[in-house]
Design brief:
This protein is mostly helical. It is built from three helices and no strands. It is globular.
Length: 106
């Protein structure tokens, strides 16, 4: 039904795995376009909000839109993107915390 979230890094057509530095781009593509070749036929942006909460909050990585989809500006603000999605998520959350945008649970 297109309601799965593929693991990242993804398996490429040649059987190898995608590089960590490409993880954020893959996640953004999952958000905007989906990934039918990996079973994600419905882009995450089109999922009901309740499906994107909890564990799935990783897709906060789509913060690239704060930069009007300007990849160069995004990478300048978050060079951690080249190190993989986990380090990027930590950097985004640090920036959100510094701005007062991140509410942590107690």
């Amino acid at each position: 039904m297109g309601l799965i979230v593929p693991d990242v890094p993804i398996t490429l057509p040649d059987g190898s795995r995608s590089h960590r530095r490409d993880s954020w781009r893959i996640i953004v593509r999952h958000w905007t376009e989906g990934d039918p070749s990996h079973g994600l036929t419905t882009p995450l942006k089109d999922w009901p909000k309740m499906w994107l909460t909890g564990v799935n909050k990783l897709f906060a990585l789509t913060r690239v839109y704060r930069y009007n989809s300007d990849e160069k500006a995004f990478l300048a603000a978050y060079p951690e993107a080249e190190e993989g999605s986990s380090k990027l998520l930590a950097a985004i959350n640090d920036a959100r915390r510094a701005r007062g945008d991140l509410v942590t649970r107690k």
